[in-house]
Amino acid sequence: MAHDLIFGKTKRDWSCGSIVLPAKQQKQIFNKLDDVRYDVRRAGSRALTGMLVLSGALGVLAISNFKGRH
Fold first, then answer.
1. Which of 17, 20, 32, 48 is 20 to 30 Å from the Cα of 65, by its Cα?
2. Which tens digits make up the pLDDT trace of 2-40?
3. How far apart are CA 66 and CA 57, in angstroms?
4. Angle made by CA atoms 30, 46, 59, in degrees to the nearest 5
């Protein structure tokens, strides 16, 4: 492996601990990380949507409460 690294006979990126992991396992781990990042972003956007809907509902409730107190 060292001979391949020195003479550039490998096309792999050896950064981030790639020497320990085979290329197939490294690709699987990176794909899993991408899936987790996507799921976290999607959950965050759903939480934001829920907060906006709740804020709108509370705003409508407040406006209707002021209107009825004449």
1. 48
2. 666 666 666 666 565 556 677 888 889 999 999 999 999
3. 14
4. 155
